[in-house]
Amino acid sequence: MALPVPRGPDVEGALDLRILLEPPNGNGEKKKRAAPKPASFLAGDIESFVNLKHALGFKYRNGETTLRMLDSFITENHPSSSDLTAELFSGWLSSMSDLSRATRNNRMHAARDFCLYRRRFDENAFVPGKWMFLDDCHKFVPYIFSEAEVSRI
Q1: Contact call for residues 84 and 78 (beta carbons, < 8 A)
Q2: Residue 86: CB partners within 8 Å, gap ≥ 6?
């Protein structure tokens, strides 16, 4: 049961909880955090790719965030680079070593999709091979209890 919102002069200075029910930006959507604009040599390609995803009806928030992380990595660690290479991509993957296998795999897929997009316009553009992906990150091997184990439970 919901409690009524206090009103009247006897609760002066009390927090009006109705503000918690109002949409953050007036149209029912959460406010988006301003992601840094891409700044590396990939900036134009990232913007074009993200715009394409949005035009196709995808929100593409996680993918956009991933590509901005890649861009930030390049800007901070390889500012003089002019092309995405296997070495640079491997360095980016190494920077995510503290993340779960599934998270790294998802980010690698987003980056690979972006690289495939770039390949449409430049036949020499780097595309990470499928061998770089962590195939077994979602595999779950169930354990089947024996009748003796079940009886002990």
Answers
A1: no
A2: 126, 128
**Token output for 118:** 């770039």
For the segment 10-52, what is each residue's pLDDT rounded down to a tens digit? 544 544 444 444 445 555 555 555 556 778 899 999 999 999 9
Burial environment of residue 92 by CB neighbours within 10 A (0 to 12, 13 to 18, 19 or more): buried
Q: What is the DSSP string of 49-88?
A: HHHHHHHTT---HHHHHHHHHHHHHHHHH-TT--S--HHH
Quick one: CA torsion of 54, 56, 57, 58, rounded to 10 degrees? -60
List alpha helices for the chain, DSSP H.
43-55, 61-77, 86-94, 101-119, 147-152
